[in-house]
Amino acid sequence: MKNINLKSLLPIITGIVIFIVLTFGYFSPMMKGKVIVMSDMVQNKGMSKEISDFREKNHSEPLWTNSMFGGMPAYQISIRYPNNLLYPLREVLGLGMPSPAINLFNYLVGFFILLLVLRVNPWLAIVGSVAYAFSAYNIILLDAGHLTATLALGYYAPVLAGVILIFRQKYLLGGVLLSIFMALELLSSHIQNTYYLCILLLVYVLFEWVQLIRKKEYGAIFKSFGVFAVAGILALGCNITNIWNTYDYGKYTIRGKSELTSNKQNQTSGLDRDYATQWSLGKSETMTLLIPSFKGSSSSISIAENKSVLKDVDPQLRQNVGGMGQYWGDQPFTVSPYAGAIIVFLFIFGMFIVKGRLKWALFFTSILAIMLSWGHNFMWLTDLFFDYFPLYNKFRAVSSILLLAEFAIPVIAILAIDQMIKNPGILTEKIKLALKWKGNYLINKEITTQTAFLFSFAITGGLSLLFYLIPSLTDFTSASDLRTYESIAKSNGEEIARQFFENVEIARKGLFQADALRSFFFVVLGAGVVWLYLKSKLNTALLIALLGVFILVDLWSVDKRYLNDKNFTDKRKAENPFPFTDADKAILEDKDPNYRVLNLTVKEGPFNDASTSYYHKSIGGYHAAKIRRYQELIDAHIQNNIQDIITTANANPSDSSIRSAFSRLGVLNMLNTRYIIYNPSAAPWVNRYALGNVWFVKDIKMVKNADEEIKTVGEINPATTVVVDERYKEELSGFVPKIDPSATIQLTNYLTNNLKYESNTTSEQLAVFSEIYFKEGWNAYVDGELKPYFAGNYVLRVMRVPAGKHTIEFKFEPQKYYTGEKISLASCLTLFVMALAALFFGLKKEKKAE
Hints:
By secondary structure, the chain is of the alpha+beta class. It contains 30 helices and 22 strands. A hairpin with a 7-residue loop joins strand 10 (673-677) and strand 11 (685-686). The model has no long low-confidence stretch (mean pLDDT 90).
């Protein structure tokens, strides 16, 4: 090590500098102190406000929040794990960049590491990193605010790099690389994207193991398995607190199995099929990988933003047509997952000239991901995975698995260019195409690399040009158009509706043709540069430079359709994205520490919005992992209660009719819904029939199962009666309800994770607490002594309260959190020691080689 090889470090240092420049170049408003407004992060501010306030005041984690859906664990909302030492490591690797800059930088650096491990030309590796990082799907996720998802994606490449090193028998280095980045992957806390990564790794590992079996190198299989096991255990150990508690919580959420027996055909042990496959990619929509607007670009971007396509639209209809979104695919709403025209061309060319098991593993994974992304449009495969692949049925938006293809495509594309650079005479080589089935060759012929090149160009450039010339090869309508058509026809007549959609089709066709021609142009540019290089008209440096520029321009310009300077705002405005209304002010004058609010004014509805949770404890909220029983209560009763309120409000109600309506809201009343916001600029309705934090009941309605319980809870008067599943009959053994007019019980102290009550009765009573039942962590105490409690009214807590004066406490004490933190610290320290060992032995080996 007397002399450091600066020449070999130059492309690496240059690459990092380029990545920093590109990151802050794309997010240039951040340099002016502005911040990006992302929908999911805005929602997160609302859902996590109570948690962050508790943390700031008490310097500890509440682990529970009452601000959404009546109450739920905070595991997937906002929890800090102080013993997980990977948090500071992530900041160091991300150079301390703020979100979303750190997410884009991770894309770039992670893919760079993979390509260097694959021994790709380092300068070309910079281009490859740009091709992956600026793939439209990755930027779209940032635009939506899916920061945990994008953090997870950023670690895909270095995790795969670690596995590749292990199969090269660099066990220590590969194991440490795998363990560190898999630990960071798990730290991102996006189980769905981590699951998809595991599919990719499993496919690649199986390809490698099959080859080792053929060579009878069984020792290498056992060694690699051992390294995988150790690396996996350490990665899991570092993140065990989050994973352990999330696993336990998941069993009780909409991703767990329902106890209801209705709608069995649609149910799985996880999400219901129709819910999970609601976002299913249309089969033809897969062409969006090549042509950005094959089914439109984005449902959130209006046609009017591209004025040129309106020139052929009827002038009388331009304004209305321009108001339509730029998406007409199969999904409810979405944006286009464009991979880049040049990259897709190189990917297809790479399938001919790149050799090795990695190529076939990536290709197989890509095809599998594409077919699974079709969801209900390819239901036999979706059903197969839902029924037989563990955990797959826990995830929604099946179209998101397309990210595996978006990852694999640029890897193969860059390997194709690297192959050309390392083999200058490749154009004259023969490529054998063989496909064997049951001992017979279906295909068995040789073609030249030149033929493969032309074929790749025909598939990508030719198809793009063909679609431009003959746009009628695809269609320009969506399932949602039918509802719009019927609405227009009902109010304006069939002829107006027909004319309107004829003009919508004209505009959509213009969008489509413009992008088809655009893709053709970039394929010609990319293929032209490659062809000149293969014909020795360009040198390697110019090839890499030109491809880098063309790929960046192609992807950058599409990315800016979705995430651009308009997404940024002043930091002061972003700190509180929820205006403080007159209704909020009136509610907060109530000093009772615990009541709930129903907001009927939010645009997306109370159960898909977290703005109310910023100021209040909401009946609704925004979260993809609600407690299943609460969701079932919403579907069975709460929505009906809300509809009753809306019907009353629309009938120009008197005070007496409003009170009468509130008296009928049995489920909302038992959830202590004291305030209903019907106009943000007016004082809310006050529901005097809300039952409060806790009350005694005199009647018990015992039922046989969950179906009877959820049905009966809508039929009782919850002020006097509680519905209890017979599974809890032992808890009620010997209890005889007695009316005690003098009995009192009230909440005296409120913390999110500690509720204190005072009771005073002359006889034993049965108390119903307006708190969500969740047995994994909540403990009940009477005068400091642990006591049992059980579920009632489908979602609430019920407890026998002894006669006399007593202090009753509910404390959220999930022991797995505290045990997990100890395991996490030990695992992180072990991992860091192994990393230092890998560095020490690596330097020692290098010194010995010198």
